[in-house]
Amino acid sequence: MLGLALATLRHRRAGFAGAFVALFCAAALVCGCGTLLVTGLVGTVRPERYAAAPIVVSGDQEVHAVVDKGKGKTKEKAKPIADRAWVPAALAERVAALPSVRAVATEVTFPALLPGGPDRGSWGHGWESAPLAGLALAAGRAPAADDEVVLDADTAARAHLSPGSATVVRVPSGTLDVRVVGVTGRGFDSQAAVFFTTGRARALAGHDGLVSAIGVFPSAPTAAADVRALLAGVPGAVVRTGDDRGRAEFPDAAGAGVRLVSTGAVLAGTSLLVALLIVVGTFGLSIQQRQREIAVLRAVAATGRQVRKMIGGEALVLGLSAGIPGAAAGLPLGGWLHGRFVALGVVPANLPAVFSPFPALAAAAVTLLAGWVAARISARRATAIRPVEALGEAESKPPRPAAVRIGFGVLATAGATVLTALLTVLHSDQASTPVCFLAVLLWCTALSLLGPPVAGAGTAVLSLPLRASRIGGWLAVQHLRAGAHRLASVVVPLTLLIAMACTILFTQATTEHAAAAQREHGNTADFVVGPHAPASAAEALAAVPGVRTVTRVLHSQVRDGLTKRGVQAVTPSGWPTRWTSASPPVTSTGWRTTRRRPRTGWATGSASTSG
């Protein structure tokens, strides 16, 4: 039967071209997404500012809770928090007093944006934290006054600044006039650093008595264990060594790993499922076209098992020929996908892609298995009926779909209609997302069950314009009517592919559009300034002629147990007692201003910031 399978593939190359392309693309996508998944699981974020400190003490970036699983079982769960966790500065003196510690260095971190510098990943620090990165001055001197700063080499080159240059720095409290007095000997790959004096940096950070990290320089190999023992009773303090220091420097690294794992798994599973559906349709169409050949094989004593082996052999050969090069192409595809995620800011640049042979091997094996399963599914009827019935079906019209199949198709259609109607009254992300995907799944199931009738109905509709051509159009209509079951084998997988792709692509856009509409409905402001507007912008906005009210709004996130909730802080002073909308007065991030306008009621405007 393997010889027959090879001969069939050799003489029907065009018929299997679609299955080859589908399996090739599936193997490439599974391997590429598998690379993302492996990166999320085992990838580590390399420390940059903490590279020279063997031990780093930082705050715990997770909230912990014990969840009751029922039947006396409990499980401890942890969820990441949105903001950077800080630790008491007094811990530095306690750690420095240990005999196994040679020195310590503290650091504070806050946003500090320079003109011409990066829009994100630009941070301000105190110069006392320079030893954590092993930085030394290449030009100039250390900052000594509140208006003096030192820049890392890459940031200085990008912003075209050098010792003696005057510039401005935008920090959360406002815009500062500063003078560059020094430039370090090297820079950082994924961030910019602006160093102030120690006192000025702590004041700008706004966390009295707290620091973002404490770097520890040991004098004995037992330093890490000694620091852990010392801080064992301090809540929220975490001791990190090795690559784990990167998580203290980049708090969003854990979230980036989770995003890579979830995205890689979803994309790989979706691409494999789509390929399976396409291959089922391709093999189904091929078997229908070879119905007479298969019937003759059955008539000359070929058993159903032998025919299944022949079709399975075709799928194995096709899967090997498509899966191996597809898996090889998936490795550079994984690197390209990782690069796009970095460019979009989904993952930090210092979380490098991890290339492993396991995604390629898994992609080739899964693609081979998917092709074989799809072929066996397509061949189930052709190999189950008796030889005489096979000859009869090959010469007669295709049988109508079974009543049971039609019944289940109608039920699936009814369920999909109900869920689609339910989506019109659901307005929360948590409730609508699962219902949306379930509705799509039910619509796809209904179409699979009702494929031949739907194809026949579509042919009847399309036959009207085709009749304009008396010869070609008439022949096309008659052919489609006679082969509606063959048309369904092609239409169904394509429809499923389009439905899943549109759901994945348009769900996020639809959510963003709904969020924008809600913000617009709830925001009665005339002007919005931001995001990331400095605090000093409030006074500047209030001084504009015609402005009556300035309301500052700050958005953040908190954890209520393990549940993430959005919160906002506002300044209530100057709120009008009467609003032009029934919505809550503040719904957008930032500053809200009110100006006089020649009409009744209050006109509002806002200048927004986040932090």
Report on this structure.
- The protein is of the alpha+beta class and 611 residues long.
- The chain is built from 19 helices and 19 strands.
- A hairpin with a 2-residue loop joins strand 16 (547-560) and strand 17.
- The radius of gyration is 33 Å and the shape is elongated.
- The termini are far apart.
Beta-strand level of the residues, as a percent range?
15-25%
Identify low-pLDDT runs.
576-611
Helix content: 40-55%
Per DSSP E runs of 2 or more residues, the count of β-strands stands at 19
Structural class: alpha+beta
Shape: elongated
Largest sheet: 7 strands, mixed
Number of helices: 19
Describe the SSE topology.
Blueprint: H1 2-11, H2 13-42, E1 55-59, E2 62-70, E3 73-80, E4 87-88, H3 91-96, E5 101-107, E6 110-111, E7 122-126, H4 130-133, E8 137-140, E9 148-151, H5 153-159, E10 166-171, E11 174-184, E12 192-196, H6 198-205, E13 210-211, E14 213-218, H7 223-230, E15 237-241, H8 245-249, H9 253-289, H10 291-299, H11 304-343, H12 357-378, H13 387-395, H14 403-423, H15 429-449, H16 451-466, H17 472-482, H18 484-522, H19 537-542, E16 547-560, E17 563-570, E18 591-595, E19 603-607
Parallel strand pairs: 7-12, 9-11
Antiparallel strand pairs: 1-14, 1-15, 2-3, 4-13, 5-14, 6-7, 8-11, 9-12, 10-11, 16-17, 16-18, 18-19
Helix pairs in contact: 1-11, 2-9, 2-11, 2-12, 9-12, 9-18, 10-13, 11-12, 14-15, 15-18, 16-17, 16-18, 17-18
